């Protein structure tokens, strides 16, 4: 068991402490916990789960220690106890790392009376009571509450307790605040009045996003400095997700955040279970060398917020596994120290013990793939949290299609593109990268000139980085088209027709056409470009007697080009990703997979033959390849929660042997036992007889 020991672990209480914080337990206390919960129970949970790090409620909205900071509300049940301190001491005695949790998003009446300037104000000028608990007030994240009051809280916790970091929840604010300070500060910084809506075409909205990013970035820097002035090894760790990365200057994150916490605690609605793995890829897309932790709740994550509940064990394990298979570290969170429902405990123990077994393989290798999706942060920054969901649907559709096709892939942030980063891949997928800067466009063109391949769709490159429209799409000449009509939609009853023999339109035996998209751009292919699919001109969807095509197919619906440098490009001028995400038509999944296979121009390095849905991740070192195989096969894969595990097998993998190497040994990651394998034709074949949830195949090269 990998368990920390204060005497033998060199990075305990050092600036690199986070490197050995790999399995986290979080306990979020409620106000009456000081008189109801059993701290020793939780210290035993640390032991049973083999956790080596913990995050514990300390202060902010409620202090769980005897705070002396004025207006820092202390639990009315605290008495002469110190539950935070007791848990810290218990964890440290086990050699664990400790992070204190604060939540600054609300204040009680006495603080609001003394400091009304700390309270958030809505667009009508009214101070905002909390939406879920009207006895308290929502704070303005850009006010002196965060910049003067909270630093005193951080100083007190850092000075008085043996901690490595402070973690903040709900610290970024809740949209636009219209208090007098925000009005004047924003006006002085931007020259604009505060926006009244989140319209991405509104200059004041774009300016507010930039101003907010600057303010929150400064907050990270100042809170971190407050802590380091007392204990140099400590850090402020902001809670964030893939979306939150857009809220900050990324150079500041590199400097001040040694690791990243993704607060995406579980599935909502019809989200697929691979969504937690996507979080890992998105974090790595922006910060490829930064550890990232996935926070998983033991309860369901729905809009109705049953926060003091327990979901089923297989769902907890599936969400955790899908994150860790793509490099995230496991962290579970329990709200309320009292445990009336024990059903989560054993699944967490089982999951953490599996992660512990696979951990040496994961931590000693780096992610590897031939294919990457471009994360369009330049485009998504112009959306608010609601419109962003629709904007991301293009990428989600491509993501799901590649999972179904069992193609290992990574993600690359367009904000962190470099020629060196792009050259790690053979195919880059631009699902709908609407906004691209001239510099980004030049890098993409250079990538193709050096032999890389692109698969692009819909309105990619139609706007500048600032969201202003381009007269001509930036990559049109490279992708081999010119625009004949702008995007239109939504439209119904559209089709695209197979055109001749081409690898991209294979696998549709018996079909002359397949369904099309719901938003279409009219394009014409340039000379030398192939057109595997053509648009079928519109025809009515009612009356039913009128549902038939009037004209022959015309106008390119897919354009394929081969380039002098050896690269290939595919352009799909309609919203195939978003349509596949909404409709999940198998023909669209095949078209995406065919396009990527053709763009790759070779046999994929790792082929998987099996029944079921399998998510594959590759990791490598100089002498080793690790293939992580995650079983997603379940009737609840896209509508949770998962109720039971459906084992699959056999799973046969054919893996390319690197040039100049041979196979030394093949082992099963969870047990270390040797696996039978065969080598022929430059590839090694190995079969996993049965897979319940997650395992790894370790191949060592001689």
Automatic annotation (TrEMBL):
Matches recorded under InterPro entries: Beta_galactosidase_Trimer, Class_I_gatase-like, Divisome_Glycosyl_Hydrolase, GH, GHL6
Gene3D superfamilies per UniProt: 3.40.50.880, Glycosidases
Record-linked Pfam families: GHL6, Glyco_hydro_42M
Beta-galactosidase trimerisation domain segment(s): 390-500
Protein name: Beta-galactosidase trimerisation domain-containing protein
Organism annotation: Devosia yakushimensis
Organismal lineage: Bacteria, Pseudomonadati, Pseudomonadota, Alphaproteobacteria, Hyphomicrobiales
């Amino acid at each position: 068991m990998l368990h920390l020991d204060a005497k033998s672990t060199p990075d305990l209480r050092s600036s690199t402490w986070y490197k050995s914080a790999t399995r986290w337990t979080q306990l979020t206390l409620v106000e009456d916990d000081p008189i109801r919960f059993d701290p020793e129970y939780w210290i035993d949970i640390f032991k049973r789960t083999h956790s080596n790090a913990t995050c514990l409620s300390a202060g902010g909205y409620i202090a769980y220690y005897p705070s002396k900071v004025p207006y820092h509300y202390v639990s009315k049940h605290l008495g002469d106890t110190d539950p935070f301190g007791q848990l810290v001491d218990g964890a440290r005695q086990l050699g664990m790392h400790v992070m204190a949790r604060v939540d600054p998003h609300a204040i009680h009446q006495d603080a609001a009376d003394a400091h009304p300037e700390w309270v958030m104000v809505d667009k009508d000028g009214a101070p905002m009571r909390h939406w879920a608990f009207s006895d308290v007030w929502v704070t303005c994240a850009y006010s002196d509450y965060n910049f003067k009051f909270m630093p005193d809280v951080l100083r007190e916790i850092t000075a008085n307790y043996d901690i490595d970091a402070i973690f903040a929840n709900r610290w970024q604010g809740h949209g636009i605040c219209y208090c007098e300070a925000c009005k004047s500060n924003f006006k002085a910084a931007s020259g604009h009045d505060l926006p009244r809506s989140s319209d991405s075409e509104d200059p004041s909205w774009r300016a507010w996003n930039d101003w907010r990013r600057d303010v929150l970035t400064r907050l990270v820097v100042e809170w971190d400095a407050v802590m380091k002035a007392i204990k140099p090894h400590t850090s402020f760790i902001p809670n964030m997700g893939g979306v939150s990365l857009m809220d900050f200057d990324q150079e500041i994150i590199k400097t001040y955040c040694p690791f990243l916490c993704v607060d995406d605690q579980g599935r909502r609605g019809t989200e697929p279970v691979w969504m937690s793995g996507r979080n890992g890829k998105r974090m790595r897309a922006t910060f490829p060398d930064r550890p990232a932790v996935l926070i998983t709740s033991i309860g369901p994550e729905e809009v109705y917020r049953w926060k003091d509940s327990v979901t089923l064990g297989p769902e907890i394990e599936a969400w955790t596994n899908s994150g860790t298979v793509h490099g995230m570290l496991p962290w579970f969170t329990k709200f309320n120290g009292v445990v009336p429902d024990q059903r989560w405990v054993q699944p967490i123990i089982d999951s953490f013990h599996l992660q512990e077994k696979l951990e040496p393989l994961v931590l000693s290798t780096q992610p590897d793939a031939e294919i990457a999706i471009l994360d369009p942060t330049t485009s998504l920054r112009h959306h608010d949290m609601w419109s962003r969901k629709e904007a991301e649907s293009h990428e989600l559709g491509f993501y799901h299609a590649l999972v179904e096709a069992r193609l290992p892939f990574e993600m690359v942030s367009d904000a962190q593109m470099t020629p060196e980063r792009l050259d790690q891949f053979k195919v880059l997928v631009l699902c709908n990268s609407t906004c691209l800067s001239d510099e980004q466009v030049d890098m993409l063109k250079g990538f193709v000139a050096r032999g890389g391949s692109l698969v692009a769709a819909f309105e990619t490159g139609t706007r500048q980085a600032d969201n202003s429209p381009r007269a001509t799409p930036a990559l049109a000449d490279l992708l081999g088209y010119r625009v004949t009509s702008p995007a239109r939609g939504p439209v119904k009853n559209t089709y695209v027709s197979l055109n001749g023999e081409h690898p991209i339109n294979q696998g549709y035996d018996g079909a002359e056409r397949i369904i099309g998209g719901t938003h279409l751009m009219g394009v014409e292919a340039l000379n030398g470009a192939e057109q595997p699919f053509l648009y079928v001109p519109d025809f009515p969807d009612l009356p039913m007697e009128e549902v038939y095509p009037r004209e022959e197919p015309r106008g390119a619906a897919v354009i394929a080009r081969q380039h002098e440098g050896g690269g290939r490009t595919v352009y799909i001028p309609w919203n195939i990703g978003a349509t596949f995400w909404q409709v999940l038509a198998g023909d669209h999944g095949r078209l995406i997979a065919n396009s990527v296979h053709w763009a790759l121009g070779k046999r994929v390095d790792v082929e998987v033959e099996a029944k079921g849905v399998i998510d594959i991740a590759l990791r490598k070192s100089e002498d080793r390849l690790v293939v992580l195989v995650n079983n997603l096969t379940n009737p609840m894969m896209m509508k949770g929660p998962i109720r039971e595990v459906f084992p699959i097998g056999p799973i046969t993998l054919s893996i390319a042997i690197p040039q100049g190497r041979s196979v030394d040994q093949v082992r099963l990651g969870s047990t270390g036992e040797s696996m039978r394998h065969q080598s022929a034709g430059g590839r090694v074949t190995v079969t996993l007889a049965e897979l319940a949830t997650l395992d790894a195949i370790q191949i060592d090269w001689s």
